[in-house]
Amino acid sequence: xxxxxxxxxxxxxxxxxxxxxxxxxxxxxxxxxxxxxxxxxxxxxxxxxxxxxxxxxxxxxxxxxxxxxxxxxxxxxxxxxxxxxxxxxxxxxxxxxxxxxxxxxxxxxxxxxxxxxxxxxxxxxxxxxxxxxxxxxxxxxxxxxxxxxxxxxxxxxxxxxxxxxxxxxxxxxxxxxxxxxxxxxxxxxxxxxxxxxxxxxxxxxxxxxxxxxxxxxxxxxxxxxxxxxxxxxxxxxxxxxxxxxxxxxxxxxxxxxxxxxxxxxxxxxxxxxxxxxxxxxxxxxxxxxxxxxxxxxxxxxxxxxxxxxxxxxxxxxxxxxxxxxxxxxxxxxxxxxxxxxxxxxxxxxxxxxxxxxxxxxxxxxxxxxxxxxxxxxxxxxxxxxxxxxxxxxxxxxxxxxxxxxxxxxxxxxxxxxxxxxxxxxxxxxxxxxxxxxxxxxxxxxxxxxxxxxxxxxxxxxxxxxxxxxxxxxxxxxxxxxxxxxxxxxxxxxxxxxxxxxxxxxxxxxxxxxxxxxxxxxxxxxxxxxxxxxxxxxxxxxxxxxxx
Length: 547
Description:
Layout: H1 5-15, H2 18-26, E1 32-37, H3 42-58, E2 61-66, H4 71-74, H5 90-110, H6 124-134, H7 139-152, H8 163-172, H9 180-188, H10 198-203, H11 207-210, E3 218-224, E4 228-233, E5 246-250, H12 256-261, E6 266-267, H13 273-283, E7 287-302, H14 312-320, H15 324-331, H16 355-358, H17 368-382, E8 388-394, H18 397-412, E9 417-423, H19 425-434, E10 439-445, H20 451-454, H21 474-485, H22 489-506, E11 509-522, E12 525-526, E13 544-545
Parallel strand pairs: 1-2, 8-9, 8-10
Antiparallel strand pairs: 3-4, 4-5, 6-11, 7-10, 7-11, 12-13
Helix pairs in contact: 1-7, 6-7, 6-8, 6-9, 14-17, 21-22
């Protein structure tokens, strides 16, 4: 799209200041000024240059951060559907018009181009790109480049929601795009992200740690910590596929009795194979289920600060003791684990090591006796025959106890002396976080079978605190960054395989297997679709009860 000649000139004249902007955001000062900006607000666009003048006049350090305002909470519109403005009232319409009229006057003072927008805007992607540019001290150059063309044309000549145009704007101001696509995917598309209420944060920055709110398909009613929650239908939910009047959730210890008795109609975590068999027998045609392999990998993290596990031979020995090929099919019959070995990446996905390569690595060969003989040899070389060590376990039956009992048995076959210490979840989490263990059960949950998501757990401890092995490996860190920025599939896969092999060889984190999840339902429950993550498809959207 070709911009109006006058607008092109205005943009060029103002962008001449870009070197000064970059210098200002890089300046250090005695005090810090944090400024929040929403690119869909003309007043944010107007405020940039006066704010940068404060940096010069008062020698302060500036920290610009994106902040997404709500059209609805601001009273600009009752909805954002179709990107059309629907004022809540005549008074609300007047306020919105005054908002833009005031902006026009301020723009005249700075000779900034401004035209009223022809539609509502969504700045989420732009704000993500803003954060990416901020890593290179180019956030204001990027924002002003976008806003000059956007606000100068009433957003007719720049699509704020277009990744393509945002990338072009980043390149124009000198941003290096290496890793941009992975950055957008990993952060923006992550279901682990949350949108928090600005008014609640204003009351207390930690408000959401202890309280519940939200505007999904069901409204929060009540929560009893550790016991239950209640939610009711949100009548104004924009998708309109919330079909239940009310939902109730309970923390239960036994699954079979309440499902057979009708006290509950679904269990969302997972059902073990013996329970599935019992439910089928007792409920008959009233029982149904859905199954899927979860992108949650069960692992054992070895504490790199524990003296024996500083030696790679000892770590590899523990890995060699585990008969994955013989034991996992049996384990899968009693708990919800997959019946086959896997590396860190989910098997049979496009970046995973092929089986013939994986099974050549230490600990993954099919000859269990040969593996154990090698393990004993390594332990003898390292001076750790008969090693005693603690294994931290979480006090939850499935699959924790079952995995633990199996691992204890496997390690003892190599002459090792593990001691299992089981604690309630809160204490277990504290022990794992503080590193008060030799070995611990651990898990690596993902929502996407992509190396940037799945390999993140194995980066150095100072890069990722959730690497509970507490290990540091700069070679792995460099390989991770390299694959994240590589856009050629074959080249990226080669780097990913190098990371996988190196991490498995180091053996600070031992992959056990992935999770085979079964969700049990009363046959009246319809519309549910199981996902490959515990945190997906949990909002009850589309679920209804059949009479």
